[in-house]
Amino acid sequence: MEPYLGEIRLFGFGSIQKGWAACDGQILQIGQNKLLFSLLGTQYGGNGSTTFALPDLRGRAPMHFNASFPQGTPSGFNGATLKFEQMPPHTHIVMVSNAVANSPVAAGNLLTMMGDKNFAVSPKNPSESILAGSSVGNTGISSPVSNMQPYSGIMFCICTDGIFPSKP
Q: Where is the Phage tail collar domain (predicted)?
C-alpha cells in the first residue's frame, strides 16, 4: 500500500527511508515541499512564507485532536512538582508497648516512654496521638517527579513523497 503524503507511521528500524522524514520538528523549505506544506501549513511551526515545520513527536505521545486539544499544539509535561495540598492524606503505623523500657538502645525495640517530647497514644482514643515536633514535618525537596507512562523508543516518520490525499 502506497503511503499518503503527510501520513505518519512508526518504524521499528533505525533508519529513515526514502520519501520519509523523522517527526523531529525539523524546518523545511516551502518551495521544495509545496504539497506537504499545503496539508500541514504552519500548525507545527515555521514562518509560513518560506518555511514550515514537521511535527515533533520526540518524547511525546500522539493524541487525537479536538476542540480542547487543537491539532499541532503540544501539551503536557515530562515531570510535575506536587504541592503539599496535592498530596493524599496518609498515616504511619508505629509499634509501641506499654511496658517499661529495658534497653537504652532503640534497635529492635518498641517506643514506651510518654511525655511532652515523646510519642504517646491516648488509651481511650488511639487516633489522638502526640508526636514531638522534631520527629515529624514536611519532607521532600520540591523536585519534579516523573510523569511519563512506560515507553519504548520507536521512530515516528512522516511521508514526504506519497499520494496526495483527497478531501471527502
A: 6-62
